[in-house]
Design brief:
By secondary structure, the chain is an alpha/beta fold. The chain is built from 15 helices and 13 strands. It has three domains: 85 residues, Arc Repressor Mutant, subunit A; 243 residues, Aspartate Aminotransferase, domain 2 (3-Layer(aba) Sandwich), CATH 3.40.640; 104 residues, Aspartate Aminotransferase, domain 1 (Alpha-Beta Complex), CATH 3.90.1150.10. The strands form three sheets. The protein has an eight-stranded mixed β-sheet, with helices on both faces. Helix 7 runs parallel beside helix 8, helix 7 packs across helix 11 and helix 14 crosses helix 15. The longest helix is centred in the C-terminal third of the chain and has 27 residues.
Amino acid sequence: MPARPLSPLWNSLALDRRAAASLQDQLFAYFREGVLAGRLKAGTCVPSSRALAVEHGVARITAVQAYERLVAEGYLVPRPGAGLYIAESVPEHSLRAPEAPRRETRRAPPPIRAGRPAPAMRERPIGTLALSPGHPALDAFPWREWSRMTARIHRERPAAALGYGDPQGELELRKAIADYLGAARGIACEPGQVIVVSGSQQGVDLAARALAEPGDRVWCEEPGYPAGRAAFQAASLETVAVPVDGEGIDVAAGARRAPRARIAFVSPAQHYPLGGSMSLRRRLALLDWAERAEAWILEDDYAGDYRYAGRPLAPLHTLDRGNRVLFLGTFSKVLAPGLRLGYLIVPPGAVARFAAFKSAADRQPPGLAQRVLARFIAEGRLAAHLRRMRVLYARRREALIAGLRREAAGILDPGDAPEAGLHLTARLLVPGDDEAASQRALARRVHAPPLSAYYAGTKRERGFVLGFAATAESEMPRAVRGLVAAIR
């Protein structure tokens, strides 16, 4: 098919050098919104990075990096020898017409119903063992900065932090979270939309009880996060296993199995446990389904801050125009699970209901810990910590991959490990019971959960979900050898 001519619309791009957003972010946003609004059609050639840089007076690396982000998220596709083009796979019917500012165009959220509790979760070892998935590098926790901030707040003696507080969480922390998400993830939200929760598990439970009533159906990724599935089942909801492929959750399969499901629970930035990101095509299809079904989408961004090639992908929440996506984040993977702090970003019309359910569940998270975290974020300590951790985790990831290829060749296959998150999946290449091998590995101080345990149905792959963030590089060969011995 002949390429469409270069669109003249890109010439309307006006960069604001006084704006808070960087020039790279402005370039990215211009082309992204042009695609979603239908101004830039599929198959349209975009200008070269050199031409764009010269025309708009920016460094070429700025234009190159903006284009790399657009390619990573599926808005642009490269054609060898021909340049970059608007992706053909973006469904024309899903593209939004130009809209007024976001707050004015969002429709009222769908009607909300209620929910309640009951099942079993897989036990995880107490403490951190080698290859434990879901554990950050506790040996690299920023004790010095955290201690200083804690001491400073204790000297201030904030009596209000010792009493009953707002069920939504401390306002200082909610402001810090809203500001951080706007700068780091592109999410526009107000502090009033933030609900502070005791980790992502409570966030899932809260959404289940606030959005649905017993007997309602919930899409869960297959394979997927077992603890999330258990939370929905505890609220007396029926979980529906929806298969995942290379593009993420199969929306068409979900629509066939449960067309009127109440909630879709997904991890678009990095699927858990297989890795990989949900394609733009699937993201738009999921939003379309939710609008037709008057359903909610719970976006689990458990490790969206950790990407080792390029910038973190834009959340699904940034594409939402119908007030149907709730964004779930946690500081368990960013700092430490023992803090028991996370957050939900809730549509404005649903905040009061969520706050009421939160108050009934545990009243509030600890006030002093919230204030320490708020200062930690607001003073830039969290951003600096994340930069250090990305470097450390990239090294530990490479050490685990090297260990698997050297010590477990012909036994375990890490495949094309995703360049994101805190774990990878290694599939068994030999016959065996991954469940039994996982139990034997625990005796060797290696925590390697079986991949088969992440499936709800009977069709299961065999392998292991291996964390690398909490294991020192020097310990990787020993840990891999311990797992191989348990398999044998």
